[in-house]
Specification:
Layout (H helix, E strand, L loop, with lengths): L4 H4 L23 H20 L4 E6 L5 H14 L4 E7 L10 H9 L3 H16 L7 H4 L2 H10 L5 H11 L21 H19 L2 E7 L10 H14 L5 E8 L8 H4 L1 H7 L4 E4 L4 H15 L7 H4 L13 H6 L4 H6 L4 H13 L6 H17 L7 H12 L1
Parallel strand pairs: 1-4, 1-5, 2-3, 3-4
Helix pairs in contact: 5-8, 5-9, 7-8, 9-10, 17-19
Length: 401
């Protein structure tokens, strides 16, 4: 037998590892508790799409808790259910203490797909020509911003559209002569950043009937903004952006408790706009949660029969293999309990969970997936078709040394 995880452990077509990637496997979310938390957020997002307010929230939990995967899964669910929301994912940079707000805002603007922005801007320009929509100057109250949005985002050249998005995001020294000579060289203040987002959200609302929802990941890096002047600028800018209708902003933060959240996000003028009730904590898994998470993961990745119900709809067709390979039946001796625990032996599975729960970081989903991968690779090295107690104890001992 070929010594790969996919062949050794009878994985479904499309799976080659137990360590799933947030973007590649964004359609999967394992564990009923995880889906309950996801569905709570989805309900809030759906509700905000009806009222046009945009959902503002801070979602926090320990590092490795699965926040990045949750971000991408929310994007997938929004697209699947066709909510009237345009999701934009951003991963925070490692900001310096004096970083200008443009370090975040440029990412927010340039993450819009070029072709999509051009489509919306062109459609909106037609509405204006037909007197079915207001000229953008009435929305953004800035001649330069209105000009770039109405003329720069509708040009044929994608590279010029991207330049316009960079300029709208506050980047300096962007060549804009093709749009207008003497245009303001750089957007730097909260009022103009707010104008840009108001313009974009208005166009998406009029053309698609959609609001814009930003998912800002690794927002614990906002704690890096420690310079007093920079902090004050960021505070004013965040206050401006969180006031814009039809623009939702969710910050996903690595933090053990609410007290560990970035100071910026705990300022009264920000928390009041977000709403105290919208500071949502993702708690760590308990024993039953971890067990359910792993069993569901294995049943989804491995050819153990029908795909678990929560994932049948999103599983690619080639992965919907309902039969159990004869060789796997032989490995597990036809025993239901052994098949359920596979790739572990039942006693090794229980021991693995207990070991994971003992450490402060070991039960995090990201750490659990790393440990599963490690014991699986060790089993292959030793030529064992299942992960037994000796392997689990061996890896556990290595982790404590």
């Amino acid at each position: 037998m070929e010594k790969t995880l996919a062949s050794w452990f009878f994985m479904r077509p499309g799976f080659s590892t137990f360590r799933l990637e947030p973007e590649k496997h964004r359609q999967f979310l394992f564990g009923s508790r995880e889906r309950e938390q996801r569905d709570q957020i989805l309900g809030e997002l759906e509700g905000s799409s009806y009222g046009g307010d945009g959902f503002k929230a801070v979602v926090f939990g320990d590092y490795g808790r699965g926040k990045t995967h949750l971000c991408h899964n929310l994007e997938f669910e929004i697209e699947k259910t066709e909510l009237k929301i345009k999701p934009i994912y951003i991963k925070c940079s490692n900001f310096t203490s004096k970083a200008p707000f443009q370090a975040l805002f440029e990412e927010m603007i340039t993450q819009f797909p070029t072709s999509d922005v051009k489509r919306v801007a062109t459609a909106y320009a037609r509405l204006v020509q037909e007197n079915k929509a207001d000229p953008l100057i009435k929305i953004v109250h800035s001649e330069d911003i209105a000009l770039v949005m109405s003329e720069g985002l509708t040009v044929v050249s994608d590279s010029l559209v991207r330049n316009c998005m960079r300029w709208l995001g506050g980047e300096a020294k962007v060549p804009m002569e093709a749009i207008k000579t003497g245009i303001v060289p750089q957007l730097t203040d909260s009022r103009r950043f707010g104008s840009v987002l108001r313009g974009l959200s208005h166009m998406y609302s009029e053309v698609d009937g959609s609001g814009i929802q930003f998912f800002i990941d690794e927002a614990e890096r906002l704690n890096n903004i420690s310079n007093a002047d920079a902090f004050a600028t960021w505070l004013v800018c965040l206050r401006e952006l969180t006031e814009i209708p039809r623009v939702g902003i969710m910050f996903f933060v690595g933090a053990n408790t609410r007290n560990d959240l970035p100071v910026l996000l705990m300022q009264e003028e920000i928390s009041r706009r977000i709403g105290v009730v919208n500071y949502l904590e993702l708690l760590g898994p308990g024993r039953d949660d971890l067990r359910a998470f792993m069993l569901e993961l294995f049943s989804t990745c491995i050819q153990k029969g029908a795909v678990p119900a929560p994932h049948g709809e999103v599983m690619p067709e080639e992965g919907k293999v309902a039969s159990v390979p004869d060789e796997l039946v032989k490995v597990t001796n036809g025993e239901k309990r052994r098949l359920e625990a596979f790739p572990f032996e039942p006693d090794a599975f229980d021991e693995f969970i207990e070991n994971a729960l003992m450490g402060q970081t070991s039960s995090k989903p990201s750490e659990v997936l790393i440990r599963i991968l490690k014991v699986a690779q060790r089993a292959i090295r030793k030529g064992k078709q299942t992960i037994d107690m000796s392997i689990v104890n061996e890896i556990s001992a290595e982790g404590m040394s």
